[in-house]
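Question (not urgent): is this output format expected?
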Amino acid sequence: MIPFNIPLNLGEEKKYVNEAIDSYKIAGDGVYTKKCEELLQELLGVKKVFLTCSGTAALEMAYLLANIEKDDEIICPSFTFSTSACAGALFGGKIAFVDCRKDNMNIDEEKIEQAINSKTKALLVMHYGSVACNMERIVEICNKHSLFLIEDAAQALDAYYKGKALGTFGQAGCFSFHATKNLAMGEGGALCLNDDELIERAHHLWDSGTDAYDFERGMVSAYSWVDLGSSFLPSELQAAYLYPQLLNAASIKEKRVMLWYSYRRQLKELVDQGKLEIQELDKNCDINGHLFYIKCKDEAERESLRLYLKEKEISAVFHYSPLHSSKAGKKYGYLVGEDKYTTTESKRLLRLPMYYDLKDSEVSEVVEAIKTFYEER
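Got this back:
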């Protein structure tokens, strides 16, 4: 069987987890938390990274830093994971959903301004599969309208737009280390910041709303509750598991990108025949090989192919359902403009197996099964 995903395990993780256990310092903000944050700061080229217990926690911190309050509006793509929007709605924000682009499933940057009104406070963009949104245009819009820009870069660690790391264009960048991600600690995430004032406040949010960080620096005689916040930090066991993966981030990316291009090369024949479509790649984008998807003619064909692959013991999955038409999406937000692509394109999309231990021969096996499916049709 070729599964859809196998969580990353380099074989070195046990060593560091056991060292954390033996140190008896397994709570958050210890040695490995700091080491991971330093490696991420170096990789991303940012002033400060806060390791978090999930990508969702990073998003919640970002929305707190944006000061989202009741009736504030947040612009968000409809094609994204629920927590991209849920984290903002949690603090009373209303979500203005925007359609995606057909070529890369990212938010359509030319439809953002029609969603801006006097209540709009923030814009969230998500880089689907590590292919960058048009950040040049998006930053221009945010500067023009004074919007707080949050990048959901959950899938985009070590991916770039015009040479600049994704997650570093806005005021806040959010990453995930969920078991399905390129680097994985089971559950986990990170928030990256460059603004000194945001960093200062983020210390309070990260540590349950207290000024414990100020106390550690000798700035206050005793720490107390000073702001909103939560226990956003992960345990040292999670950080210790992540640490060797960060040390090997370059080789992990290299392997996944090689697999990504192998899929692309081997599927070219079917693309040229008009049987299916694959993700287009802008010349300004440097990907990390997080996922590979194809698009079938319609939902019925996608489901037939998915079940056919399942019979061949190959696991392929569809992805996000549009948020604007979901039960919670209707309650906490609304669609701006036309749903030209979000629904129709999401129903055509099928994600193929992609993980670090996947072999190129297995990529060929998946592709051959897809070719056989279309030959039989």
